[in-house]
Amino acid sequence: MNRENYVNRLVNEKFWNLNIETLADGGGWCNTIRSCVYRKTTRRGSSNNFEKQLAFTGILSNKPEENPDFFNWNRVKVRYCDGASFAGDSEDKANNLQFRGQKIWLAAMEDLMSKGMKNADQALLSGCSAGGLASILHCDEFGSLFPKSTRVKCLADAGMFMDATDVGGGHTLRNMYEGVVTLQGVAKNLSPACTSKLNPTSCFFPQNIVPHIKTPMFILNAAYDSWQVVSSLSTPAADPNGAWKACRNNPGNCSPSQINFFQDFRNQMLNALKEFSTSKENGLFVNSCFAHCQTERQDTWFADDSPVINSKAIALAVGDWFFDRSSVKETDCPYPCDKSCHNLLFRS
């Protein structure tokens, strides 16, 4: 079925239920007093610095030709400013820092429920990057807001941050997450099913959370997530001699041994998702791209040249999963086989 016919079919079927979608905006985390003090002067740390308007594209678009399954939903973007994926609850009075992500999350949900979300027939919690992690952390909490008659699901885009060894043999992301969890008082808001077995830092990693999530979830991730490649796996600190600089900026510059390193990272991600993917209610789309956040960009969500696996674009895969039209468990062949990727390239 071509794209035009698919759009027309869905418009004619008229999905006019009251559908609410909450998007947790990406934006990383802050893990030290210094980084959090700086962050509060930016749009990622205070609503005082938010943009007044944002473009709604991709999964947020209101155009059926751009967003066939969700264009006529109530679409809400929950702005992100706490630096801990809406999971912190502490303060540092000496530096005038309030870490209230969990309270912000609860207040936002209370406000949306009062505005009509409580009457939703269908609801999707989604987000990319730090928002993707927020969707994972809060998925069951979100599901508990609704009666069993409501179709409630969660989508994590580029939220599968891995507890992986970097190119220098260190643990860049684990060290960052340990600071986030400790500084912002995250531990008490993490999954008890996880923290009863592992330390709080480990329970901030999706690979240790997703096995415990009961609400249906869709994991969308690039196997070689570009944020993790640049900011976790091959950072300048982990690569002091600059051997990874050209590869970090463009996978086309990577040596065979460097590609093998990324193939091992891909395998770690796929292994972490094995148990998750066995559930018939869950969905999976892991494409072999060097990309990050593919739901909110129109070119990767639904366009004539969007990334595909088995000829299926991301928007169609998510729609098929959400509406139970078909099971979606798509895993791409290893890089560089996928020619549909929109790989992110960086300047030196």
Automatic annotation (TrEMBL):
Gene Ontology CC: one annotated term: plant-type cell wall
Record's keyword terms, sorted: Cell wall, Cell wall biogenesis/degradation, Hydrolase, Secreted
GO molecular function: pectin acetylesterase activity
Superkingdom of origin organism: Eukaryota
Any GO BP annotation: cell wall organization
Pfam families xrefs: PAE
Coiled coil: none
EC number(s) stated in the UniProt entry for this protein: 3.1.1.-
Compartments (UniProt record): Secreted, Cell wall
Enzyme class per UniProt: hydrolase
Family (UniProt): Belongs to the pectinacetylesterase family.
Job description of the protein: Hydrolyzes acetyl esters in homogalacturonan regions of pectin. In type I primary cell wall, galacturonic acid residues of pectin can be acetylated at the O-2 and O-3 positions. Decreasing the degree of acetylation of pectin gels in vitro alters their physical properties.
Protein name: Pectin acetylesterase
